[in-house]
Design goal:
The complex is a heterodimer of chains A (115) and B (108). Chain A is mainly beta. Helices cover 0% and strands 51% of the residues of chain A. Chain A contains no helices and 11 strands. Chain A is globular. The chains are: A mainly beta (115), B mainly beta (108).
């Protein structure tokens, strides 16, 4: 399975600022996924990032709040913009094989606290 | 109704016990099924895929019942290191939907 390097691992940010999270994969992948895991909750998909096209956002998530870049097949960034305390969460990137039946691998996550 | 539902837990069991987790899903078009394990403050990691014929990996057995839209995970001879949250995951095309997770604590 792919090896994913995600950073930063954690950050404490002031409300109103933005944070960009980076995800680097050791192999080329068609799709990368960004998830949010709020305290005590399971994972919620934010968006799917495809190389060469705009990201596809899930209901409740918008590009202005969570802009995503996907400049090549091994890298993606997620920005959490104009942060508020409600954005405090763990953010995870994920990649997987396109063939059905194979699970996805996750980055180690970014633990964000907004104060 | 949520897309993927799991036993709410937590499950507190003694070492050596057998424990079973249940998961139900609402979308009959679901194609792939997985169990993930998430340790505290860590990312989820794939535990095993779940096949229609059922599959076993050491002390872990997964079962799928498509007619009932039900998935299970059985852990035999539980170890302290099995303590974690177990996430049921259902795949619809390119989308993975995570269940809320069931927390397991194995006690000495």
């Amino acid at each position: 399975s792919a090896v994913i390097s995600q950073k930063p691992s954690r950050d404490i940010c002031q409300r109103g600022t933005s944070l960009t999270i980076q995800c680097q994969v050791d192999s080329q992948v068609t799709m990368m996924f960004w998830y949010r895991q709020q305290p005590g909750q399971s994972l919620t998909l934010i968006a799917t990032a495809n190389q060469g096209s705009e990201a596809t956002y899930e209901s409740g998530f918008v590009i202005d709040k969570f802009p995503i870049s996907r400049p090549n097949l091994t890298f993606s960034t997620l920005t959490v913009s104009n942060m508020s305390p409600e954005d405090s969460s763990i953010y995870l990137c994920s990649v997987g094989r396109d063939t059905l039946g194979y699970g996805y691998t996750f980055g180690s996550g970014t633990r964000l606290t907004v104060v | 109704r949520k897309e993927v539902e799991q036993d709410p837990g937590p499950f507190n069991v003694p070492e050596g016990a057998t424990v079973a987790f249940n998961c139900t899903y609402s979308n009959s078009a679901s194609q792939s099924f997985f169990w993930y394990r998430q340790d505290c403050r860590k990312e989820p990691k794939l535990l095993m895929s779940v096949y229609s014929s059922g599959n076993e990996d050491g002390r872990f057995t997964a079962q799928l019942n498509r007619a009932s839209q039900y998935i299970s995970l059985l852990i035999r001879d539980s170890k302290l290191s099995d303590s974690a949250t177990y996430l049921c995951v259902v795949n619809y095309g390119q989308n993975f939907v995570f269940g809320p997770g069931t927390r397991l604590s194995v006690l000495p």
